[in-house]
Write a structure and sequence with these properties.
mainly alpha; 140 residues; 6% strand; 7 helices; two-stranded parallel sheet; Rossmann fold; (d)CMP kinase; globular
């Protein structure tokens, strides 16, 4: 199952389905149902703005398109899949444009999100930075 959810087609379908009001309303209810004590970590393009606008801490993680394409190719290679760089570049570019311009919950950072551009960061640096921000906000 975890391999399937990371396939490119799943992201494409999710992005397209998110443009339909009835589907979006149903999914919003389902997503919010998962919020139970002690909380959760949610990942998605409108988690901080629409699904969980009152979350204690929000990160808006981004990187330039070239870096995201490279990282995605590496991720797919790890699960035995391969894709053409130019094809993936165009798919991600189209998805970004569609998600940023859709009428229902468009992609943008919430006003209280911590913007994290990871273009020139390693995963360990992203984790370290995120943990510092979390510790500032939450008493652990």
């Amino acid at each position: 199952m975890s391999k399937v959810i990371h396939c490119q087609i799943v992201g494409e379908i999710a992005s397209k389905l998110a443009t339909y009001p009835k589907i979006r309303k149903f999914l919003l209810y389902q997503q919010r149902y998962f919020r139970k004590f002690p909380g959760l970590i949610a990942e998605g393009r409108d988690m901080g703005t629409v699904v969980f606008p009152d979350a204690i801490i929000k990160f808006f993680l981004n990187a330039n398109l070239e870096t995201r394409v490279y990282r995605r190719i590496q991720q797919l290679k790890k699960i035995g899949l391969s894709i053409n760089y130019q094809e993936l570049f165009q798919q991600l570019k189209n998805r970004d444009e569609r998600d940023q311009n859709r009428l229902i919950s468009p992609l943008y950072p919430s006003k209280d999100a911590i913007i994290l551009n990871s273009t020139n960061m390693k995963l360990s640096e992203v984790i370290e930075y995120s943990m510092k921000e979390i510790k500032k906000k939450i008493v652990i």
